Amino acid sequence: MSQQQPTARSPRRTPSLAHRPRALAAAGALIVLPLVTACAGGDDGKGAAGGKAAASVTAAPAAGVVAPAKVEVIAGLTGCKAKIRIDADELRQGLCHTKKADYLITTFPEEKFKETWLEEARVYGGKYLVGTRWVVSVKPALLESFRAKLGGTIRELRGIGPKPGGR
């Protein structure tokens, strides 16, 4: 008869089955937490640079489609074929001409470029239709109809200087 040698234990510990659900729950929370906090993003009434911004109106378009950040696609959704005016690394801009209005569609490769553009446009004031990485500049009377087609948010930018009709 041979003597049985004791089994050598590995220096690594294997987690017990009781700890696995907790580990999975913790990992799941770490994955979900950034998504939840990103979607919660409260509106504190300030623009990208901390300046005052007007209240904005947000709603999904009637068709349930949100326009992508491509000049030609947005132009098609609004019923025109855009003439590209600017094709740069930071933005693309197309001019649309229709019977109702002439308007600009500006798209950006990253959200930060859009926010910089809006901060610079604040000097001029006005209302804009703003989406993810795109801005449409159209006369205010058409903003709601464009929002129904494209989605986005209507943002009013405060210009600098005296208000019209005021001192």
Describe the protein in words.
The model is unreliable at 19-60 (pLDDT under 50). Helices cover 29% and strands 20% of the residues. The protein is globular and about 40 Å long. It has helices at residues 20-40, 71-78, 111-121, 143-150; strands at residues 57-58, 83-87, 92-97, 102-107, 126-131, 134-137, 153-157. A 7-stranded antiparallel β-sheet has the order 1-7-5-6-4-3-2, with helices on both faces. A hairpin with a 4-residue loop joins β3 (92-97) and β4 (102-107). By secondary structure, it is α+β, with helices and mostly antiparallel strands.
Architecture blueprint of SSEs:
Blueprint: H1 20-40, E1 57-58, H2 71-78, E2 83-87, E3 92-97, E4 102-107, H3 111-121, E5 126-131, E6 134-137, H4 143-150, E7 153-157
Antiparallel strand pairs: 1-7, 2-3, 3-4, 4-6, 5-6, 5-7
Number of strands: 7
Gross geometry? globular
Percent of residues in helices comes to 25-40%
CA-atom Rg in angstroms: 26 Å
Q: In oligomeric terms, what are we looking at?
A: single chain
Beta-strand content: 15-25%
Question: Main sheet?
Answer: 7 strands, antiparallel
Uncertain segments: 19-60
For the record, give the distance between the C-alpha atoms at the N and C termini, rounded to a whole number. 109 Å
Order of helices and strands: HEHEEEHEEHE
